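Progress note, sequence design subtask.
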């Protein structure tokens, strides 16, 4: 943990709201990004990011610095999102036909100078397919893929967040990647068949 983060954490623990606000500003984009990748839409991501920061503030007195601040924040954010997904699964079936088109930030890091309209449409369709495939995965597989492939956490950081061994992280990640590839292949095949009809 950087000395600046440590100072902000210590000040926040004493009730310094300005220090906590600085922590929020520093980590809000990462927290939002995690929430978005779990939920697939802007409104839910904003709500859950806010809820995560409330939990982070309340849990700060117990933060001992055993892991990095970002890993700890990530852990809380992921738990908030997982709890929300569980609540929704208990209430109703999750629809894969939800609209993800509005305010869809880049899911893949695709960079282009200035793509034409057709190229941009293809990229947006690919982003949508990636998000749909993530949504079709089990909660555990989605979580580990988000942590490793999108948030670029190390295996050690993932093991800390999931409270499991490195071997478990590697095997679960391998299974999650295979499941994602299968879902993506099926989705692409379905799209291709639709186009031919």
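Output:
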């Amino acid at each position: 943990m950087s000395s600046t983060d440590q100072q902000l954490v210590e000040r926040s623990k004493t009730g310094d709201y300005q220090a906590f606000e600085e922590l929020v500003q520093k980590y809000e984009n990462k927290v939002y990004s995690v929430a978005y990748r779990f939920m697939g839409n802007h409104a839910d991501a904003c709500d859950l990011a806010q809820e995560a920061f409330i939990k982070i503030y309340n849990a700060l007195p117990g933060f001992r610095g055993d892991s990095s601040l970002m890993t700890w924040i990530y852990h809380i954010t992921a738990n908030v999102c997982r709890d929300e997904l569980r609540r929704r699964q208990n209430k109703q079936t999750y629809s894969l036909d939800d609209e993800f088109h509005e305010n869809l930030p880049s899911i893949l890091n695709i960079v282009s100078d200035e793509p034409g309209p057709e190229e941009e449409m293809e990229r947006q369709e690919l982003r949508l397919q990636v998000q749909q495939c993530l949504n079709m995965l089990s909660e555990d597989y989605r979580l580990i893929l988000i942590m490793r492939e999108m948030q670029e956490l190390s295996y050690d950081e993932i093991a800390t967040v999931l409270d499991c061994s490195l071997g478990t992280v590697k095997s679960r990640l391998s299974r999650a990647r295979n499941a994602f590839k299968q879902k993506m292949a099926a989705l692409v095949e379905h799209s291709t068949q639709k186009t031919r009809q």
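Residues 149 and 177 are 10 Å apart (CA to CA). Work on this subtask will continue into the next period as scheduled.
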